Amino acid sequence: MEDVKIRYSDSDLQEFKGIIIKKIEKAEEDLKLLQASYKNGSDNGTDDTSPQFKSFEEGSDTMAKEANMQLAIRQEKFIRDLKNALIRIENKTYGICRVTGKLIQKERLKLVPHATLSIEAKRMQ
Q1: What is the pTM of this model?
Q2: In angstroms, rounded to a whole number, what is the distance separating the alpha carbons of residues 22 and 11?
Q3: DSSP string spanning 45-80?
Q4: How far apart are CA 13 and CA 3, in angstroms?
Q5: pLDDT tens column, 19-43
Q6: What is the pLDDT of residue 53?
Q7: Cα–Cα distance for residue pair 10/81, rounded to 1 Å
Q8: Coil, strand or helix: which one is 96?
């Protein structure tokens, strides 16, 4: 009978925890920048420009703010997924595929530390 690993070792989990904490810190910095870009109500001094360009500029400002809001929402979800991964580390269930119950490859977890599916399970979708 082959020796199948049921979970990652505590030292592996600590290594993943370090990776995830760094990713959360970076993601939170990025989120603050995105939020600042669409919450910033400061006028860029377009009062003295020609009126026919003003409506175009306001339209593109609105589109840019909406795009940044969408990015911020995705970033918030990413941070939430990373924090959930930390909870799985504490529970010692981190790195276990929620479909197959097998360990997710270490390489995949280093690239996508919040993954909950193995490549095998992902292909089945």
Answers
A1: 0.79
A2: 17
A3: S-TTS-HHHHHHHHHHHHHHHHHHHHHHHHHHHHHH
A4: 20
A5: 999 999 999 999 999 999 888 755 5
A6: 59
A7: 21
A8: strand
CA distance 17 to 88: 10
96 DSSP β-pair partners: 103
DSSP code of residue 104? P
- Long-range contacts, stretch 1-6, CB < 8 angstroms, 24+ apart: 5/103, 6/96, 6/103
Token pair, residue 124, equals 């089945």
Is residue 121 helix, strand or coil? helix
Residue 121 · residue 97 · CB < 8 Å? yes
Query: With bands split at pLDDT 50, 70 and 90, how would you rate the model's confidence at 101?
Result: very high
Place of tokens 């592996």: 12
